[in-house]
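Input chain follows. Return structure tokens only.
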Amino acid sequence: MSGNILEMRLRVPLGQFDLNVTHASRERVIGLFGASGSGKTTLLESLAGLRRTTSGYLQFRDEVWLDSDSGRNLPPEQRGVGYVPQEHLLFPHRDVRGNLLSGKGRALRGGVDFAAAFEEVVRVLELEPLLERSINDLSGGEGQRVALGRALCSGPRLLLLDEPLASLDTPLRHRILPYLIRVKENFSVPIFIASHNPLELQALCDEVMILHEGRILAVGSPFEVLTRPEVFSAATEEGFENILPAVVGQHRAHTSSVALGFSDSPLRLTVPRARRPVGARVHLGIRAHDVLLATEPPVGLSARNCLPAVIRSIEAVEHIHLVTATLQDDLPPVIAELTKDAVTELNLVPGKAVFLVTKTHSIALYE
């Protein structure tokens, strides 16, 4: 056995181009990034077995789902995929509980303990207060959670999410993203996420594929591929956001202190007051254009946060320079957007020790 979770050599004829992708991966959470019309939804539908014009080869774990040479093409109901489309497609004639129960038969046929799965889904997605609600009375964020819960209750072998945050405004995205993180952490099911939102790809994915006109442009870690010059400008409609794990350390009147990383890190940040208790895990979002660099410890500033770092690389992208800095080995690197003049005047070069400065209210909390 290869050890790959997914192997695919797929071709789908489309209008202006053909989707033509070849990839194999051992990663559990895979992201698919690309502009609208690049083929993301078509690829998800092909994985689910919904595109009957798909040809080629598709293997999930040790089972072949598609092999055009031998005439094998498993129908959707035999693939055991949980698919959450952009439109959610909840059953309007059933309440929330009824929607969650709709996949019970498939879960039982797959050998799933449905009662335990139902209880876990309700707990993780905090659906208990919604169970008797009508689908028509749900907000966009609540509908997204219910659609996700319905897919999980069916006992899927593979979970497909098509633009899970696309229909939500920014505040709602910030509220829903932690639920997606919970799903990743609490369920072992492999996940494939199609998105044009670099924030959710960084927070959730182990690997990201860049799709352009039906072809894979690049594959790698979220940080590696989203900061490539040919991708970065397309990935930053709302500004590139650094995502860092942290643990709540102390609450004050209007702010909280957090320790970066999920180990006992000496690096601390002051953030807007967290709702989670001391010791809870959270994720922080810091936009690249909100990170200032100093070559000496700054004094007399209103900005509360100053972290020692070492420059790893500097790369020009259009009219800005991306400075990548390392905080410590177990943390993701941090990107700062600077002008060419700033890089030159500060004599910034790889290997140079610097300080990353950020205002408290420039930090977003994903709790």
